[in-house]
Amino acid sequence: MVIYMSDLRGGLYSSKSAQQKLIKVFMQLHQCVNCREYFTELKNIGGWECKSKYHPGKWDYNRMAYTCCGEKTTRNYGDHSALDHYMHWNRRERLLIPPILSSGCTRCDCVSTGKNPIPQGEILVHNIASMIPAMEKYGRKLKERPGFLRSSDVKKMKLVRKERLPEQCFASEEWS
User: With contact defined as beta carbons under 8 Å apart, do 127 and 118 qualify?
Assistant: First the structure.
């Protein structure tokens, strides 16, 4: 049976069966594509706690830096600094060579290796209101999650999911 988020309504006045479907989806165990850790959506959503970071900006070849944070490549000033990343060093020597770029500047949510009915982007809080007590008991409180967007109108409060999808070879549509 395939469950879609559009079918899930876990508001305060939802039926018991609708709330049970929502609990089943939020308590399902997933493995992250990026950091390979196991997680449930109950702790993951809007928490931005994936161990792998990413650069949301693009690489600017004119400035030789990322557009998001301005990070530039690092240089190794050793005897063979120009050739460090082209030479085949043994494992011990390779540990001494600093990486050219960091892993990233922005935190994100974990991304499931399998199918996940919870949509990317934003989730309205009033649609998952019955899950809020469990989210606060087993994870971080809603107000402490960096992905929580507060609003004066209850129906406009949201949880924002930031997901870094792994880079794909031939990602353009002309190859598919």
Answer: no
